Amino acid sequence: MTAKRNWSNYAVLFLASLVLLTIWQMFYPPTELPDVPQYSKLTLYTNTSNYAYSLSSLPDTDYNQLINLNFSFNILNLVCNESSPLVIIMVHTSPKNFAKRKTIRETWGRYREKVKILFVLGAVKNITLEKKLIEENQNYSDLTQGSFMDTYRNLTYKHVMLFKYVIYHCPEAKYILKTDDDVFVNMPTMINFLTLDLSVYGAENLLFCTKRTNSRVMRTYRSKWRVSFSEYPGKNYPTYCPGWFLLYSQNVLFELYKAAQKSAYFWIDDIHLTGTLFKKLNLVHTDAEPFMVTPDELEQVVNNGGNITRPFLIGRPNLSEKQIRSLWNFVESNAVPKTILNEV
Ligand SMILES: *[C@@H]1O[C@H](CO)[C@@H](O)[C@H](O)[C@H]1NC(C)=O
Ligand SMILES: *[C@@H]1O[C@H](CO)[C@@H](O)[C@H](O)[C@H]1NC(C)=O
Ligand SMILES: *[C@@H]1O[C@H](CO)[C@@H](O)[C@H](O)[C@H]1NC(C)=O
Ligand SMILES: *[C@@H]1O[C@H](CO)[C@@H](O)[C@H](O)[C@H]1NC(C)=O
Ligand SMILES: *[C@@H]1O[C@H](CO)[C@@H](O)[C@H](O)[C@H]1NC(C)=O
Ligand SMILES: *[C@@H]1O[C@H](CO)[C@@H](O)[C@H](O)[C@H]1NC(C)=O
Ligand SMILES: *[C@@H]1O[C@H](CO)[C@@H](O)[C@H](O)[C@H]1NC(C)=O
Ligand SMILES: *[C@@H]1O[C@H](CO)[C@@H](O)[C@H](O)[C@H]1NC(C)=O
């Protein structure tokens, strides 16, 4: 009973945030940056005459440029050339993470109906490693490697490269899901959510993610995530979403791509793209937090062979292989909720 009531609260919250978003933007029209397109509300498309990238608005040199670098794809698979997916999943991965990619391929990444999945990585100096990556790609044809070095200070290049891939090589995908190689996505439920709760034709102005507000800029000297004052002068970051789960609509991805290509480089990709640049588009994040597995639920499924008694879309960040496999086993052996907003 309580589980059910909780769930209806979540659905109401979600719908309420969509309505609030619309009303908010009616009364507080965007004021800054008049040169960017002004999006007022989230729209679910109802027919196929939807948004299409205007590639002609990009300079000819755009394909071979990544922010301030010369760029090319070292490994490229044209997975959308024969059929366009409802959703393309782009998984940030570190070159050495062979085992993590394998886990995803064997679990939720196996789900291929209406879905394409690619792993996204940068270049490596180690020739043995590169040979192994080429072999892995021969086996699975699911890597996308850019010509910049794969380092955490280069994360924003990685993220903008995946935008570039989608814009040039998978422009018909209705939704773009960006994740990391240690997360779990409940694919069967996600597909029902996208097609039945959102729209099979796609949406406009959607960034569905677990939003963070008032995050402090990390200044601790020993932290890997320390940011200097010259890199980012402010005390707090704008509202942004952690990069492990980001569901973009086409137009949001395209506008962020154009903004990123023109802007100064800032290396923390999720803050730069889903915070700083997103804010300039005067858009609002749609919060995915209610659709995430809680630590208790995770513990139940992984260690107690228990149940998650409400529909969910995503696991949690930084999952182990065991946790990913347990969640997948759970999803595979249970009925898939049809729609998750109308279930209450
Ligand atoms: C199709 O959708 C677009 C954008 O949502 C709208 O402007 C147009 O009127 C729609 N056309 C039809 C035939 O419904
Ligand atoms: C990019 O490539 C052009 C020629 O292809 C070269 O002149 C230029 O120096 C390169 N820029 C960088 C940053 O490597
Ligand atoms: C589409 O891509 C696949 C896989 O990369 C490839 O085998 C096929 O030849 C491509 N087809 C076209 C028409 O480019
Ligand atoms: C290069 O990559 C191989 C394969 O992953 C690894 O075994 C080796 O330790 C790496 N070498 C260095 C110097 O990092
Ligand atoms: C690729 O497949 C071959 C043959 O099945 C296997 O021996 C090899 O380990 C695989 N390599 C990678 C990197 O997946
Ligand atoms: C990022 O990639 C570029 C291009 O490969 C490289 O020159 C640079 O050293 C990398 N930056 C860092 C901080 O690793
Ligand atoms: C999980 O839920 C299903 C259906 O509600 C039930 O049949 C099953 O026994 C439950 N399993 C556990 C371990 O609680
Ligand atoms: C990720 O999870 C592991 C345990 O699975 C833990 O040791 C590590 O601290 C976690 N990292 C972060 C960044 O939360």
Automatic annotation (TrEMBL):
<keyword id="KW-0808">Transferase</keyword>
<dbReference type="Pfam" id="PF01762">
    <property type="entry name" value="Galactosyl_T"/>
</dbReference>
<keyword id="KW-0325">Glycoprotein</keyword>
<dbReference type="GO" id="GO:0000139">
    <property type="term" value="C:Golgi membrane"/>
</dbReference>
<keyword id="KW-0328">Glycosyltransferase</keyword>
<keyword id="KW-0333">Golgi apparatus</keyword>
<keyword id="KW-0472">Membrane</keyword>
<keyword id="KW-0812">Transmembrane</keyword>
<protein>
    <recommendedName>
        <fullName>Hexosyltransferase</fullName>
        <ecNumber>2.4.1.-</ecNumber>
    </recommendedName>
</protein>
<keyword id="KW-1133">Transmembrane helix</keyword>
<comment type="similarity">
    <text>Belongs to the glycosyltransferase 31 family.</text>
</comment>
<dbReference type="GO" id="GO:0016757">
    <property type="term" value="F:glycosyltransferase activity"/>
</dbReference>
<keyword id="KW-0735">Signal-anchor</keyword>
<dbReference type="InterPro" id="IPR002659">
    <property type="entry name" value="Glyco_trans_31"/>
</dbReference>
<feature type="transmembrane region" description="Helical">
    <location>
        <begin position="7"/>
        <end position="28"/>
    </location>
</feature>
